[in-house]
Amino acid sequence: MKILITGVHGFVGSNLSATLAPNHTVYGLDIISPENPNVAKTYSWEDLDAGRVPQVDAVVHLAAMVHDVKNITNEEAYYAINTGLTKKIYDWFLGSGAGKFVFFSTVKAAADSVEGVLTEDVVPSPVGPYGNSKLQAEAYIMGHPAADRMVYILRPCMIHGSGNKGNLPLLFNMVRKGIPWPLGAYENLRTFTSIGNVCFVVEGLLTREIPSGIYNMGDDDPVSTNRLIHLICTSLGRKARIWRVPKWFIAAGAWLGGLLHLPLNPERLRKLTENYVSSNAKLKAALGIEHMPISCEQGLAKTFEAFRNE
Q1: pTM
Q2: Is 69 left (phi over 0), alpha (psi -120 to 50) or beta?
Q3: pLDDT greater than 80 at residue 34
Q4: 194, 152, 137: which is closest to 12 by C-alpha?
Q5: Which residues, in sequence order, are bridge partners of residue 158?
Q6: How many CA atoms lie within 13 A of 3 on its CB side?
Q7: What residues make up the domain containing 139?
Q8: What integer best gives the mean pLDDT of the chain?
Q9: Which of 125, 168, 178, 262 maximizes the CB count within 10 A of its CB?
Q10: Burial of 107 (0-12, 13-18, 19+ CB in 10 A)
Q11: 250 in a structural domain
């Protein structure tokens, strides 16, 4: 199978191309063209406009402007990239002979916060340009159905693995430096997504007859931030240091951090302490499996091992 991956040199794209390359021909579409033995050739978006991108059997659209927890990204950039580029590549797909299209959206397109468990039946209510731009991209795809072809919209929770950047490596490095975890008073649960499970799901969608639709994607079991600290410490071979600092004191510190552009700000505090549990039941039923191949804690252990080696 010939597969075109946009954003192929990013975190997910690099891992996915390595998984697919042994059995498929992988082409890339990206703004950069570094050496990658898993990609036959990387094309630019200008190549797409000029008709230089070859015909393929499937398209996996990863290219995106990710959520900026520092809130410094121009809102227009989210819509230009997350919505605009999705329209461009989807229109190309509609005019091509490719039979499958996989779009990586986000759970934030469905809900910024969750009470209970998030399912695909929720009425979308995103907050902010990141979730809104992804939802607009979803709406464009749903409004232009591809007759006799398969189209998948995936809504993953936080994806982690080797090469991951964002809150998880920040948390890991904080613990590695011996800094106590001060947010022990927050007993939250959230769903994560192992990069190994991401690759398993995408390969399954590309190689099997799976119904088109919107699918939440995540590991089977949610985990609390306090549990994350214990797993990180296990990886580092040290005892967990968790402090239960009063929530009001933490909130005041995060507010000050927002003013001074420090690592802990209100948005990052919310992401670190909120409950956000997503169901992957629909996706597992479509794939015909009872469990994802990698458990949440197994995936996190691999991620922390990679962080330690990096």
Answers
A1: 0.91
A2: alpha
A3: no
A4: 194
A5: 192
A6: 29
A7: 2-228+265-309
A8: 93
A9: 168
A10: buried
A11: no
The CATH number of whichever domain residue 198 belongs to comes to 3.40.50.720
Q: What is the mean pLDDT of residues 179-193?
A: 92
The residue to which tokens 């990069």 are assigned: 195
Q: Tell me if 147 sits within 8 A of 94, measured CB to CB.
A: no
Cα–Cα distance measured from residue 162 to residue 28, given in angstroms and rounded to the nearest whole number? 20
Over the stretch 104-161, which tens digit does the pLDDT of each residue have?
Answer: 999 999 999 898 999 999 999 999 899 999 999 999 999 999 989 999 999 999 999 9
Q: Is there a domain that residue 12 lies in?
A: yes
Q: Is residue 69 assigned to a domain?
A: yes
Q: 245 with 184: CB under 8 angstroms?
A: yes
248 found inside a domain: no
Please name the residue that has the structure tokens 């799976």. Answer: 210
Residue matched to tokens 């919310």? 270
C-alpha span between 260 and 276 (Å, rounded) = 28
In 3D space, the residue among 228, 123, 231 whose CA is nearest the CA of residue 183 turns out to be 228
